[in-house]
Design goal:
- There is one protein chain.
- The protein has 141 residues and is of the alpha+beta class.
- It has one domain: Yope Regulator, Chain: A, CATH 3.30.1460.10.
- 40% of the residues lie in helices and 35% in strands.
- It contains three helices and six strands.
- It has helices at 3-19, 70-80, 112-139; strands at 26-27, 33-37, 40-50, 53-66, 87-93, 96-106.
- It has a six-stranded antiparallel beta sheet with strand order 1-2-3-4-6-5.
- Helix 1 (3-19) crosses helix 3.
- The longest helix has 28 residues, at 112-139.
- This is Sensory transduction regulator.
Length: 141
């Protein structure tokens, strides 16, 4: 096993340990960790960006198939400027708009407790955003 593979494996083990305090965590065939926080599906991956810089990347699918419109775009843009843990993304599909929240951070050497706290801050934000966006979406129909 290469040094990079060993480092990312240790980081994924720590992330799994941290998340298992809060969720049922599944390890996918590619090694990614997946779980659901409320109704928000999430995935965690580890990667080495440079020598000595290994990061965890957390992606949460906040909402999908929302009706496309200026109000939704404005709402997401406003939230993106609020200093969230993560970056909001909007993807237009033939069925509507999908919204994701992504957060990547150097996590090597973090103990499971603070790592779990940081991950939960992000997924709690994603769940809150989902509730707000769905309420706004229902109000605009």
């Amino acid at each position: 096993m290469t040094q990079e593979a060993a480092t990312t494996a240790r980081l994924m083990t720590a992330a799994k340990e941290a998340l298992e305090n809060y969720h049922d965590v599944h390890v996918d065939d590619d090694g990614a960790l997946t779980f659901r926080h409320s109704e928000v599906p999430c995935a965690v991956q580890a990667m080495q960006l440079a020598e000595g810089l290994t990061v965890l990347s957390l992606t949460c699918v906040v909402a999908w198939d929302l009706p496309a419109g200026d109000e939704l775009a404005q709402s997401v843009a406003e939230r993106a400027g609020q200093g969230l843990f993560g970056t909001l993304g909007v993807v237009r599909t033939e069925r509507g708009v999908d919204v994701t929240l992504r957060y990547a951070f150097p996590a090597e050497g973090m103990d499971p407790a603070p790592l779990g706290t940081l991950l939960m801050l992000v997924v709690a934000t994603a769940s809150q955003l989902r509730s707000e966006l769905l309420a706004e979406s229902e109000g605009s129909i």
